[in-house]
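Memo to structure team: turn this sequence into structure tokens by end of day. - J.P.
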Amino acid sequence: MLPRPNGVVTLLTDYGLRDPYVGILKGALLRSSPKVQWVDISHDVPAHDVATGSFLLHTLVGRFPSGTVHLAVVDPGVGTARRLLAVAAHDCYWLAPDNGLLAPMLAGDAAIDVRAIDVEHLGLHAESRTFHGRDLLGPVAAWLAAGRYGFSALGPRVHDPVRSEDPFAGVPRVVHVDRFGNLVTNVQAAAFAGARGLRIAGRDLPPHATYGEVAPGELLAYVGSFGLVEVARNGGSAAALLEVGRGASVELLPA
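Reply from structure team:
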């Protein structure tokens, strides 16, 4: 059963905050539904970095009320023939370009329904070929959140969405580097529970619970707020010290 929209829209983009794009996107939401509530997740996704956007979207699963509409715009193919998707998964709705950004929502059997947004049927016209967030995705997100359109009315069902690599699948590795230089891996907390540590960039790190358990400047491995194993440096950047980033391999050290 599809969840009842609750009027909340989250926003995740690579627009940055220096330019007016984020504000204009919010204006498009309000013009389409003045009572919509938005939550800014991040607008600092590196430009065109679909993989990072995909990881950040996954961190939202289970963190918002049923019926929330999650709008993500990281769209290097804007203006091309790529589709715009609406996915019902994890008791929420997810709208984004069909470029792999929604990979975690499409993994396994998470997706209840996948639709290609039919902008002509919805009466939308793109004023610009380079700002589909404002002209197309923003209004659709607001309409869905407000109940003006039901999910199934957004467009036809599709069975071939772009499925990029699931950021949590595959060999143990770093999948995200946050602004503190912490290295977030795809290793789940349960897998780390029986290990004596983690090896990365030739260093063996025993498990710790908090930064304060190691001296300033020292490295540690711990389970972070995403339920994933992270590598950090107390008071500094683990990424800079180890000179590694996304994709760096890690190895669990058996007990």
